[in-house]
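As a point of orientation, let us examine one representative protein, giving the amino acid sequence and backbone structure tokens.
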Amino acid sequence: MIPAWLHALSVLSLLLGLACALGLAVDIARHPQPMPIMSIVWPITALFGSLLVVWQYAAHGRAATHPHHPSPGQQQTPFYAKVANGTLHCGSGCALGDIVAEWLIFAVPVIAVWLGYQSLFSHKIFAAWVADYAAAYAFGIVFQYFSIAPMRGLSPRAGLVAAIKADTLSLTAWQIGMYGFMAIAHFIIFGTLLGAPLRTNTAAFWFMMQLAMVCGFLTAYPMNWWLIRSGIKEAM
């Protein structure tokens, strides 16, 4: 059984993330992002990054009140902050894909069977990871396309190719960090220490996913540094 204190902590963390996401959505409506896709990126990433994402947005992402007068932060955004924004851009697709895939498998359990549960995998979590990666990759490519194609003036085909190049390594690096933490949460924290199943329809599961997304950010950051420095991915 999940301890009451952990359930309470999970609910508080999820509510904080939701409040931060709603707050950013309201502010972005008043201060539209120069790159439209970032208007989606910031609220989505705030769902797991909460106050840290709000700080990053305020320091290095908020659009100026007057479009023709950039804020000091926009004029002198350090490279490490641009990499952080780019990593969050990747993470938004990952987060959205993971949310959709996890709830889809919960609602339609046979999907896990189709993806190898009981045939290739003895644990359902591994089949869920297959769905997570596929959904995250699909959303990630879409998000990258609407960043790269407009900035470079690319055709649909060229934009899609560029998006695949930019997002594949970044997303994979993110998912490695996320999977690593969720494996620890599933098999060690809940499986061994607490002796309680980690189910999708619990607040604790999504609290663990919040922490897993932070781990994903940490493993994807170096990859995004290289991708942006090498010109494969656009700076945000």
